[in-house]
């Protein structure tokens, strides 16, 4: 059942090239320059008339929502707010019939997300679901939706659900951008072609596994770790930290790299490993200067870099390469080494990777 892998989590990490392809299959027609998603076409007016999009989710799905916020605003120029479902439902939020709410949930059963959807519907908002489990409560409760086709995710730590959620949300953003005319047709086509190449680039990123395993060995006994990223890779830093916490029980925090100097930099010393996402596109020079600040305080640096990188390699203790892609697709690649790093550390510490303590695969109570 684990297909020869020692854990479901590892199997699911390796399934990502196929899961992403399954998720865009039939929807992404790159050569024709078309994105076909019935749930969007049928409700195009609601999306185009929306004053804003509110994304509600929990945990890893909330991180996918944050990535989507950057993509929707950047490409489709639609204002987006991303809310923890548990906060949204209890704070008397302002919701109108002109709002579109997108709920993201792997299981489709998360109690807080379901309650947030019901609240939004009661105020007349249009609710669109992005779920993995067909026929789940959230899939049934939403007005329309698009499934991720990740296949069953058994490991409690979410991996392929995250990358396929980002895939679906990227397709939606591109479709809306085209409809609104916020992207030039050449830029739009370039995005379609680059998205089509993501599965093979994920497969390429997975090849760093042995190297990541060796790095994991050096840092498995750390008490804390810091994850940093900017722009599109800030949510990836949050997700990397969550992954490490939940399966290895090592305390980790994700931060926007530039927020360092507003507090967390005080934590840096020779015992603090810092995982920093420093891919070529997306504030690269600024991230390099953040790395210099960490190095000056003797922090250990693990850089997630673009293939062939030189500058970060000179400064960092270790680098892990991912293939080059467009800035707004980079989370699909930079997430991969962070998943593997937390997996290997947890295995080396003898933790129950697939079923970490205190956690359940679907959180059906608030
Ligand atoms: C993290 C994790 C949780 C879930 C969260 C939401 O690895 O698995 O944080 O992401 O409980 O679950 P879904 O997406 O099923 O609503």
Put the structure in a nutshell.
The protein is α/β, with parallel strands linked by helices and 366 residues long.
Descriptive notes:
With about 375 residues, the chain is α/β, with parallel strands linked by helices. The protein has helices spanning about 10-15, 15-25, 40, 45-50, 60-75, 85-90, 110-120, 135-140, 160-180, 185-205, 210-220, 235-250, 285-295, 310-315, 330-350; strands at about 30, 35, 50-55, 80-85, 100-105, 125-130, 145, 225-230, 250-255, 275-280, 300-305, 320. A five-stranded parallel sheet has the order 4-3-5-6-7, with helices on both faces. Strands 9-8-10-11-12 form a five-stranded parallel sheet, sandwiched between helices. Helix 2 (about 15-25) runs parallel beside helix 9 (about 160-180). The protein is globular, with a radius of gyration of 20 Å. The model has no long low-confidence stretch (mean pLDDT about 95). Fructose -6-phosphate binds near residues 107, 156, 158 and 362.
């Amino acid at each position: 059942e684990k297909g020869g892998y020692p854990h479901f989590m590892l199997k699911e990490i390796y399934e990502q090239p196929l899961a992403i392809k399954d998720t865009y299959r039939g929807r992404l027609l790159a050569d024709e320059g078309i994105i076909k998603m019935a749930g969007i076409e049928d409700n195009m007016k609601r999306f185009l008339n929306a004053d804003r999009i509110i994304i509600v989710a929990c945990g890893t799905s909330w991180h996918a929502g944050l990535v989507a916020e950057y993509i929707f605003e950047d490409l489709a120029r639609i204002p987006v707010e991303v809310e923890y479902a548990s906060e949204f439902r209890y704070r008397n939020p302002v919701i109108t019939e002109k709002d579109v709410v997108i709920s993201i949930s792997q299981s489709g059963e998360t109690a807080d997300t379901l309650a947030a959807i019901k609240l939004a519907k009661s105020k007349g908002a249009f609710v669109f679901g992005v779920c993995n489990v067909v026929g789940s409560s959230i899939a049934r409760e939403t007005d329309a939706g698009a499934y991720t086709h990740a296949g069953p995710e058994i490991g409690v730590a979410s991996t392929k659900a995250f990358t396929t959620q980002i895939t679906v949300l990227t397709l939606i953003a591109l479709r809306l951008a085209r409809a609104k005319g916020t992207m030039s047709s050449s830029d739009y086509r370039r995005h379609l072609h680059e998205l089509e190449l993501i599965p093979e680039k994920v497969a390429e990123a997975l090849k760093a596994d042995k190297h990541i395993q060796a790095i994991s060995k050096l840092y498995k006994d750390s008490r804390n770790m810091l994850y940093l990223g900017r722009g599109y890779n800030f949510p990836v830093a949050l997700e990397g930290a969550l992954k490490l916490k939940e399966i290895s029980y090592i305390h980790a925090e994700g931060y926007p790299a530039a927020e360092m100097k507003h507090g967390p930099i005080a934590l840096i010393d020779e015992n603090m490993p810092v995982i920093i996402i420093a891919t070529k596109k997306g504030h690269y020079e600024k991230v390099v200067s953040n790395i210099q600040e960490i190095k000056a305080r003797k922090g250990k640096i693990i850089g997630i870099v673009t293939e062939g990188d030189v500058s970060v390699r000179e400064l960092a203790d270790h680098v892990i390469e991912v293939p080059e892609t467009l800035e707004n697709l980079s989370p699909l690649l930079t997430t991969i080494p962070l998943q593997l790093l937390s997996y290997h550390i947890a295995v080396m510490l003898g933790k129950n990777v697939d079923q970490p303590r205190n956690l359940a695969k679907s959180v059906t109570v608030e």
